[in-house]
Amino acid sequence: MGLAGFDGYGADVSPAAGTILIVEDDELVRDALTDVLERAGYGVLASSSCDDALAYLLRATPPALVLLDIMMPGMPADRFRRLLEQEPVLADLPLVVMTAKALPPGYAYPWARATLLKPVHAGALLEAVRTHAGESRTSPSP
């Protein structure tokens, strides 16, 4: 099943527990995040825009977590978050944000479950996903 506006990742994965939606405009970053998460056994869907991700989320079963780049072209990440909060089924969807912005030590976006600094290290990514999406995964890769 293809997903309009998506990069083809997760085309054979049905969104459910253990599925992570990556919203990231940089293709190389999306590829790297997808690789790390799939190797850890998670299903992955990926979108290059908040607009496409929101359109998808409004018609699909929510994933376990959204991994969201804070600096997105088009719809800003904060507006994306506010629109999710207006939808009862999406209001509590865990958001983990990623940013390349220089932030004060220990700063976290108050509406996000976790804030990851770019470049995102695999260990920090997996820890945030395990903590906020639970341990539910597809089968781990060998």
Automatic annotation (TrEMBL):
SMART domains: REC. Keywords: Phosphoprotein. InterPro entries: Bact_response_regulator (IPR050595), CheY-like_superfamily (IPR011006), Sig_transdc_resp-reg_receiver (IPR001789). The keyword Phosphoprotein applies. The modification 4-aspartylphosphate is found at residue 69. Residues 19-133 form the Response regulatory domain. Signal peptide: none annotated. Transmembrane segments: none annotated. PROSITE patterns: RESPONSE_REGULATORY. This is Response regulatory domain-containing protein.
